[in-house]
């Protein structure tokens, strides 16, 4: 069982969202994989109520605020996203960290808010190209992981990790399966050290960064890779399905 998740970022309004679900026929791919789409918040309601959406395609929100309500113009709380029908929440995506200057402390607050309101957090970690060149991959991803996991402090419930090297996002450049495996191994070992072997083994670790139908099978069969988080290639139903068909074999 692989997790195949699509992060639509700031693409796909409500009409395009309905058209996507009308065109997406997941068939047997949904029996072999856990399928999740993260539409923009404004399209979440359309995704939930799309008459053509196979209910096996679950939905998530791309970002949440850590407070439930308040004077936070433009923000969405976890409780509100859950009310609309989200089941998952991306937290700490690289664009949130690097474009919107989100800190590890904020990521930790968001992870807790998601968990407390019944959303499964998908905690994103990943190094920049400069950090990779400086041989700091482990240091960076472990710092990001520890901030999120320690905030959950034992009452973690289910959560997922997504390793998305920043240099591979939207660039067409993909980490090699060996690079992905090595980072995932580092993350899994940290989960084992902090939460125990059972939690480490049941926490899916996804790879993200220029995943497409042509490279999905190779990445998904790499050791320690439990799924993929797909940006650009998840916007097209055929391409998303192509990736899903590569999973869970
Ligand atoms: P791309 O697949 O477009 O590189 O984006 C990856 C990503 O950021 C998914 O969250």
Topology (SSEs and partners):
Elements: E1 2-7, H1 14-23, H2 29-32, E2 33-38, H3 41-49, E3 57-61, H4 78-84, E4 88-91, H5 94-98, H6 104-116, E5 120-125, H7 129-133, H8 137-152, E6 160-163, H9 177-195, H10 197-202, E7 205-208, H11 213-220, E8 227-230, H12 237-246
Helix pairs in contact: 1-3, 6-8, 8-9, 11-12
Bound molecules: 1,3-dihydroxyacetonephosphate.
1,3-dihydroxyacetonephosphate is lined by residues 7, 93, 164, 169-170, 208-211, 229-233.
Structure description:
Helices cover 45% and strands 16% of the residues. It has 249 residues and is of the alpha/beta class. The protein has one domain: TIM Barrel (Alpha-Beta Barrel), CATH 3.20.20. Strands 1-2-3-4-5-6-7-8 form an eight-stranded parallel β-barrel, surrounded by seven helices. The mean pLDDT is 96. The chain binds 1,3-dihydroxyacetonephosphate. 1,3-dihydroxyacetonephosphate binds at residues 7, 93, 164, 169-170, 208-211, 229-233. 1,3-dihydroxyacetonephosphate is lined by residues 7, 93, 164, 169-170, 208-211, 229-233.
In short:
This protein is α/β, with parallel strands linked by helices. It has helices spanning 14-23, 29-32, 41-49, 78-84, 94-98, 104-116, 129-133, 137-152, 177-195, 197-202, 213-220, 237-246; strands at 2-7, 33-38, 57-61, 88-91, 120-125, 160-163, 205-208, 227-230.
